[in-house]
Amino acid sequence: MRPNELKKRLAAGVQAVNGWIAVPNSYQAEVYASCGWDSVTIDMQHGAPDVNDLISLLQAIQINNVTAMVRVPWNEPSVIMRALDAGAYGLICPMINTKAEAEAFVSAGRYPPFGARSNGPFRASQYAGADYQVKCNDEIQLFAMIETREALSNLDAILSVKGLDGVYVGPTDLSLSLGKPATLDPTDPEVLAAMKTIVDKTRKAGKIAGSHTDGPKTAHKRFADGYHFCTLINDIRLLAVAAQNAVREARGEAKAEASKSY
Asked: Of these four, 81, 88, 187, 214, which has the most CB atoms within 10 Å of its CB?
């Protein structure tokens, strides 16, 4: 099976930078994925792509030898299995709040005896290799999103789930759940303390911690906290900011800043 390069880089101690695709256009995805990312994630939860867009987007990412992941819209087995069958090498699942929900996610994402994933990797075996079913349980990475007060209270139990590679923090939802304004660059002490607790407990459990950010400056903060990989703002926001700044520069105006809330 073709190896998971993101997994290899994280195991080697690399602080990985993850891209984020919200636009279901394969040409844009191909160009975007060629820009040096360690991995690129297709967003099916809050982005425009749906299951019918997955194959063309995965092809566009993977032609660049970049690890392709998918944020599934919910903890729903059929979508989880379809994303993996299409060739995703990692999944990020939103709103995992309990151990039971984490176990259900892992079960849908792993073949027996470690889970209950149904066999039928229609594109995955073509891309990954004929031994896909034998090796994919070891190569594919599964990340549970920790983004609520309930998930924080159940974090130890969630991290104990076998087959879960790590967690991924959604700072805006976590902030909202703690009664704070939604932001990808939290400054509130309670939110920052929660994010530090998440990364410390995750590392202690021997798992991987990732986080969404609003750009490189915030990513540096998360790396300093101990996070293993960070996502920068998505493709459409990067396009919008770049376009705004080109116009502003032509007019002699100050640069625009990316949104901190999505």
From this structure: 88
Q: Hey, which residues are catalytic here?
A: 46
Domains along the chain? 5-250 (3.20.20.60)
CA dihedral over 179, 183, 186, 187, signed as positive or negative = negative
**pLDDT per position as a tens digit, 172-228:** 999 999 999 999 999 999 999 999 999 999 999 999 999 999 999 999 999 999 999
3-state secondary structure the chain: CCCCHHHHHHHCCCCEEEEEECCCCHHHHHHHHCCCCCEEEEECCCCCCCHHHHHHHHHHHHCCCCEEEEECCCCCHHHHHHHHHCCCCEEEECCCCCHHHHHHHHHHHCCCCCCCCCCCCCCHHHHHCCCHHHHHHHHCEEEEEECCHHHHHCHHHHHCCCCCCEEEECHHHHHHHCCCCCCCCCCCHHHHHHHHHHHHHHHHCCCEEEEECCCHHHHHHHHHHCCCEEECCCHHHHHHHHHHHHHHHHCCCCCCCCCCCC
Q: How far apart are CA 71 and CA 201, in angstroms?
A: 23
Give the chain's end-to-end CA distance (angstroms, integer). Answer: 35
For residue 158, which amino acid is it? I
Determine contact, residues 17/38, Cβ cutoff 8 Å: yes
* Cβ 88 vs Cβ 70: under 8 Å: yes
- How many residues make up the chain in this entry? 262
